[in-house]
Backbone:
């Protein structure tokens, strides 16, 4: 198989039978929106940029702290205090200047999310709180986008894909009802550094497969325990009492 017409940088990926030239070209046409430039968003953005994604928009109003650096691999000691979206943009420009990256330094509220959904194909929720996850879920569903949602606490990671182009698909609210969740954050419980990078990369994997029209974790919740290195997969169905999609 040849990779004529594909930049040499991506030629090894395009050699994959499952992907090929058409798949790589589809990736190059895809626009991804990443909410959160932290421990999940950084490795996800890195993998997407290195894979030749067509466009990245990264949203984060937070600033880089020294305690972020072990997990948030796009940030550096020199950029402590800088906005995370801008720091990620700088890093990705150096890593792959061929991929356009837009940094949005505002909080991801409902109005901003609704606006940003209009110019993306795939959304990656890489946030660390249920309020924002539910807001991203609602906005992605309203805009009929593909949503890749991920989270990590301690040694435990979760990953799921919802394809809202299909009207009967379940949503994040079917898994975790809005009125039943209590945030558990790394700042209070701790987090295993490799776990975050692992799940962030897996989120990028799902986004790239969705871009290339390959099978993804759609309507399946993957549970990852990196302490015991165990994986479990659960089917996700619509909740008739869901406040978002019912």
Residues:
């Amino acid at each position: 198989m040849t990779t004529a017409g594909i930049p040499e940088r991506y030629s090894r990926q395009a050699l994959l039978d499952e992907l090929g030239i058409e798949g790589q070209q589809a990736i190059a046409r895809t626009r991804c929106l990443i909410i959160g430039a932290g421990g999940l968003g950084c490795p996800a953005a890195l993998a997407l940029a290195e894979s030749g994604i067509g466009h990245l928009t990264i949203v984060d109003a937070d600033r880089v702290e020294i305690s972020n650096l072990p997990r948030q691999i796009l940030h550096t000691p020199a950029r402590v205090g800088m906005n995370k979206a801008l720091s990620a943009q700088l890093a990705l420009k150096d890593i792959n200047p061929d991929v356009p990256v837009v940094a949005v330094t505002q909080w991801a509220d409902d109005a901003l999310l609704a606006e940003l959904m209009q110019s993306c194909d795939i959304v990656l929720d890489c946030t660390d709180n249920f309020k924002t996850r539910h807001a991203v879920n609602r906005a992605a569903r309203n805009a009929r986008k593909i949503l890749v949602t991920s989270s990590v606490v301690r040694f435990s990671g979760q990953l799921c894909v919802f394809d809202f182009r299909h009207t009967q698909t379940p949503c994040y609210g079917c898994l975790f009802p809005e009125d039943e969740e209590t945030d558990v954050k790394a700042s209070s419980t701790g987090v295993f550094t490799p776990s975050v990078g692992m799940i962030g990369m897996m989120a990028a994997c799902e986004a790239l497969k969705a871009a290339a029209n390959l099978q993804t974790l759609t309507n399946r919740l993957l549970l990852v325990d990196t302490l015991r290195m165990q994986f479990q997969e659960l089917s996700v169905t619509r909740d008739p009492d869901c406040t978002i999609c019912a």
In short: Strands lie at 31-35, 55-59, 101-104, 122-125, 146-153, 156-163, 220-225, 230-235. DSSP finds nine helices and eight strands in the chain. The domain at 8-235 is CATH 3.40.50.720 (Rossmann fold). The mean pLDDT is 95.
